[in-house]
Amino acid sequence: xxxxxxxxxxxxxxxxxxxxxxxxxxxxxxxxxxxxxxxxxxxxxxxxxxxxxxxxxxxxxxxxxxxxxxxxxxxxxxxxxxxxxxxxxxxxxxxxxxxxxxxxxxxxxxxxxxxxxxxxxxxxxxxxxxxxxxxxxxxxxxxxxxxxxxxxxxxxxxxxxxxxxxxxxxxxxxxxxxxxxxxxxxxxxxxxxxxxxxxxxxxxxxxxxxxxxxxxxxxxxxxxxxxxxxxxxxxxxxxxxxxxxxxxxxxxxxxxxxxx
Length: 260
Fold this sequence. Notes:
By secondary structure, this protein is mainly α. The protein has one domain. It is built from 10 helices and no strands. The protein has helices at 2-17, 22-32, 37-62, 69-94, 100-124, 136-153, 159-169, 173-197, 206-229, 232-258. α1 (2-17) crosses α3 (37-62) and α4 crosses α8. It is globular, with a radius of gyration of 17 Å.
């Protein structure tokens, strides 16, 4: 039930803010679970996939999509390719350490840095001149970087997606939230496909996976509903609150895995 609660809460926040949910699921499970980084990455990815599938599917069926296909399709394809590379990078770095806890500690440090920089940008974005990228190759390269980082950290997308969409594509908060989930969906499908095709699916408890996927779906339903009823400022406040929570959890995980 703890896994279900984490998946539900993270997916609600993820669907509202566009951070996918994995950026909350990953550090929380690192803190409270005895499962290794590979299992947590896999469970988190499947949960984020279920949430993003619902959110994007519902939007497309409704016919009033906010997706800017010209910008987002190259970004999403780049993110998918980056997801494969990031997954390979994670496996390589993991193999360098005999202690599994070390890779979890490295992920916690990297995530804390990403979250902190994302917070700094969000708090000061009104003072920063944004770009409006309209080049397919540039979008794909940006997506590749996003996908690599997200896959290596096991977060499925996270706050860096929003920062990129704000800065490089001049999107509003709610536009960035939905387009971020679209990009996350591409990355998660590719990542899961690679894991299955290369036969590197870790051993996990089936009931736990089912509960987390159900939490992801329910969180997507609730989060999408809430997102439609609140304004950009409220979404931004929720985003910043989630980032503070993640920073605290990352600090606890760094202490847990690297200072024992």
